[in-house]
Amino acid sequence: MTKKAENPIKSLKIPQLIIISGKILAFFSTKLVTKFASKIFTTPIKHKIPKREFQMDSKSEQKIIHVPAIDKSIVTYEYGKSDRKILLVHGWSGRGTQLFKIAEELLENGYSTISFDAPAHGKSKGQTTIMSEFIASILEIEKHFGPFDAAIGHSLGGMSVLNAIKDGLKVNKAVIIGSGDIVQDILDEFIFKMELKKELGHNLRDFFENKYQLKMDDFSAYKAAQKIEIPVLVIHDNDDPEVPVKAGIHIHHNLKNGTLMLTEGLGHRKILGNHNVIKKILEFIKNS
């Protein structure tokens, strides 16, 4: 009989102080709480680089490049030297060295990797950002370091990779891991975690659309998937507490040339270092 994990996979929680503040603002004004929620939603947490990522951080050639489309600068990491380059894109509150296990295996197989700290993440300056800035950063990085054989994205990075390909990123293959899918679902889940009324998810969407002059649903991953011709490997864990597995399944369903790998018990982040997952990624990238 299979034993249950001693440490069950848990979803990240919003601090109680933020939840209470949101509820107080909601009592007085829908406009105020919407603005407050938008600030929390677009502010990533900057974590210190853990020891396991020190090698990639110290051995990478790091540069600061400006992204004119958003008038922001980002820190890039070039890990290894090879004509066969793979672009790595971290998720929300991640950093350019987060996919280090994947990067190390790629290096051993003759590839080099390019990754980056998205705006307001890691060593890149700023306090707030949004997915469109991830996408703009990817497209600018291609100008400096491309062409890439493949792109690999985790979580929001997976959504960003699909949207970047839709917007012109040239890669032969793509891998998305634990990717989100429908933008409204993501907003609604955030509002749920904030313990606010469900209709505020629509208020939040309208706020962003007015602020950025963008239609939020246009960034939904399944919509980008419908326009992508290249092979895409979709990897998702059945027990992912951050992004439901239905997201990965739905994205795969909308791909013209997709492969789906579902895992068990790896959650949202442990999946990045799993031997079988990395083996599948390497096989997918190497096989023509």
Automatic annotation (TrEMBL):
<dbReference type="Pfam" id="PF08386">
    <property type="entry name" value="Abhydrolase_4"/>
</dbReference>
<dbReference type="InterPro" id="IPR050471">
    <property type="entry name" value="AB_hydrolase"/>
</dbReference>
<keyword id="KW-0378">Hydrolase</keyword>
<protein>
    <submittedName>
        <fullName>Alpha/beta hydrolase</fullName>
    </submittedName>
</protein>
<dbReference type="InterPro" id="IPR000073">
    <property type="entry name" value="AB_hydrolase_1"/>
</dbReference>
<dbReference type="InterPro" id="IPR013595">
    <property type="entry name" value="Pept_S33_TAP-like_C"/>
</dbReference>
<dbReference type="Pfam" id="PF00561">
    <property type="entry name" value="Abhydrolase_1"/>
</dbReference>
<feature type="domain" description="AB hydrolase-1">
    <location>
        <begin position="86"/>
        <end position="179"/>
    </location>
</feature>
<dbReference type="GO" id="GO:0016787">
    <property type="term" value="F:hydrolase activity"/>
</dbReference>
<dbReference type="InterPro" id="IPR029058">
    <property type="entry name" value="AB_hydrolase_fold"/>
</dbReference>
<feature type="domain" description="Peptidase S33 tripeptidyl aminopeptidase-like C-terminal">
    <location>
        <begin position="225"/>
        <end position="286"/>
    </location>
</feature>
